[in-house]
Amino acid sequence: MSGFNDFAIARALHVLAVLIWIGGVAFVTLVLIPACRGIAEAPAQLELFERLEQRFAAIARWSVLLAGLSGLWLVWRLGVWARFSDPAGWWWMHGMVAVWAIFALMLFVLEPFVLHKLFAQHARRDPVGTMARIQRVHGVLLTVSLAVVAGAVAGSHGGWHFG
Ligand code: HEM
Q: What are the DSSP calls for 29-96, one per residue?
C-alpha cells in the first residue's frame, strides 16, 4: 500500500486528541479561570467557572478516550511494552500514562461524583480560596502535561538516547 498506514493514522489521531485536550487545559488555566476570578463577585465565581468549563469537559472526555485508544494502538503496533519496565530514557512513556490516568480519573470519576459537591461546600465558606486552589491545581496539571508533551515529541524522535 502506498504511503499511508494504520500506524500513521493512529499517530495523527493521538496527536490531534492531545492537541485539543491539552490546548483546552491551557485555555482553561490561563484564560478562563483568571477571567472568572476577575469578572464575577467572589461567591458567583465557582458557578460561572463550572458552567463554562462543563462544555470543555465533554470535549476533554472524548479526547482522553481517543488519546488512550490511539496510544494503546501505538504501543501494540510498535511492540514497545518493554519500555515500561526499562528505566533508561523512557520516563516520558510513564509520563503519558500517568497524565492520562490523572485526567481520566478527574473527568470520569472525581469531577462528576466528588469535586462538584466538595467545591460547592468549600466555596460557601471560602469562595476566594476555593478558586485560588482550583487555579493552582490546573497550573500544576498544565505544567506536568506540557513537560510530558515535550518529552514525548523529543523521545519519539530519539531525543533521550544519546550516543
Ligand atoms: C494511555 C495513554 C497513552 C499511551 C499508551 C501512549 C502511547 C504513545 C506511543 C506508543 C507513542 C509513540 C512513541 C514512539 O513513536 O516511540 C506516543 C506518542 C506521543 N504521545 Fe502518547 N500515549 C498516551 C497518552 C499520551 C498523553 C496523555 C499525552 C500528552 C500529554 C501524549 C502525548 C504524545 C505525544 C506528543 C507523542 C509524540 C508524537 C510524535 O511526535 O510523533 N500521549 N504515545
A: IIIIHHHHHHHS-HHHHHHHHHHHHHHHHHHHHHHHHHHHHHHHHHHHHHT-GGGGG--SS-HHHHHH
